[in-house]
Design a protein that fits this description.
This protein has 207 residues and is α+β, with helices and mostly antiparallel strands. It contains 5 helices and 7 strands; from the N terminus they run ααβααββββββα. A hairpin with a 1-residue loop joins strand 5 and strand 6. The chain is elongated.
């Protein structure tokens, strides 16, 4: 096994040589079509918090963005059913002739609005994104960012799992471990090959 490349020199060439993930380069050992850097497609501006976390880790320019494509209204049908049920409760109580205190009725009427707000907050907090940069990568879940610079990685292991992309285990020089589960990372089928190419480029040993 060849020794790992020095991050100082290798990091400057990774982004130019490999660029964003591509279906034409599914594996790190795939030969390059041309010695010149391929033009990068434009990347939309990153959220302010994400861009700040990238600057703190000196990750450089973004190469690709992988975000959840599902609608934030996923599960809306179940929510609608719950709202109808909550509104139906006071109607049933009123028509049943049962003497219900006004306070209880008000609480039942407010409950759908509270449920809606909590549901939207939960959706916002759980939404995930992943990013590949010139000098590292980052994952985001809600407002929590996990950023890793190529120079921090000491060992890298890719294993199969119950997902086409598999799982990736990374050990940093600090001893910290980062695990990327394919089924939990948006666009992992496109993102993980970029990390595999980086592993081959830098020569990170397996765990």
């Amino acid at each position: 096994m060849r020794p790992p490349r020095a991050p100082e020199s290798a990091a400057d060439t990774y982004g130019a040589q490999y660029g964003p993930p591509s279906a034409n380069q599914p594996y790190p050992g795939a030969p390059q079509a041309a010695p010149h850097p391929a033009p990068r497609p434009p990347v939309a501006p990153l959220p302010a918090a994400t861009a700040q976390a990238a600057r703190q880790k000196e990750l450089g320019d973004p190469l690709s963005v992988h975000s959840e494509t599902g609608s934030p209204w996923r599960g809306g049908l179940k929510f609608l059913i719950s709202v109808v049920a909550l509104f139906a409760v006071p109607v049933v109580l009123e028509t049943s002739g049962w003497d219900t205190p006004d306070v209880m009725l008000r609480l039942l009427l407010i409950a759908p609005a509270v449920t809606f707000l909590l549901w939207m907050v939960a959706l916002n907090r759980r939404r995930k994104s992943a990013y590949v940069f010139e000098h590292g990568f980052m994952t985001r879940k809600g407002r929590t960012h996990t950023a890793v610079n190529w120079g921090e990685i000491a060992a890298f292991q890719h294993s199969s799992a119950n997902h086409p992309a598999g799982d990736i285990k990374i050990r940093l020089h600090s001893g910290e471990k980062v695990r990327l589960r394919g089924m939990h990372i948006p666009g992992s089928v496109e993102m993980f090959p970029a990390l595999l190419r980086a592993a081959a480029h830098f020569g990170w040993p397996p765990k």
